[in-house]
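Sat 14:20. Reprocessing the chain from the morning session after the first attempt stalled halfway. Input below, unchanged.
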Amino acid sequence: MNQPKVSIVIPFYNCPYVDQAIESALQQTYPHVEVIVVNDGSTRHSEKILPYMHRIRYMKKGNGGTATALNMGIRYATGQYFAWLSSDDVFDRDKIAKQMAFMQSRNALACYTSYRLIDAQNRILGQYPSVWVADRILFFERMKHHCLINGGTVMLHMDIFQQVGLFDEGFRYAHDYEFWLRVLLKHHFLYLQEPLLSYRVHDQMGTNKYSRQVIAEAALVQQKYKHITIRG
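Finished this time. Tokens:
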């Protein structure tokens, strides 16, 4: 099997768990990965990155939000595939290997998986199976009402960014939701029903701290795509 390089992009902003995220990316069993950490203007916890500097590609910028950090990482990536790891989450060691094998066996350009929930002490809270519909048109219609994809489970071929563009930096909180819908206009996501990501639930997580903004932006995304349909 061909083993193309995968660029794992880790946006970082004041997250105390960033060392665990980096460690999980560097410990992948898949042999060809590059780990790109984009410091989005952090004022705390940057020292946790220092032990890994010789093993990662490190970039620093002013604070602009997750979409801006992701886009910077994508622009500098040298891999043929992209994976996104939030700085408070953790990849399973075989996440990239299993997802790559699954995608290549089906000639897929986009894929996501299920995931498990963990707490601040890495205790498992439960497994979260994602929703998937085999028909792309029906899945798009479901997605227009609710985001069904966890960004940390996604792996994409870099060609997708050439076709649909990067994350929309105008959405500070719902950039991922908008992007998945844009991808679905051209390609379907395959779904690997195996938890390969540990998604951390904690008091300082963005979806909790900025829940009102997340809901408001999701509504804007839904309004943007409300009247868009995919023709069979």
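The longest helix spans residues 211-225.
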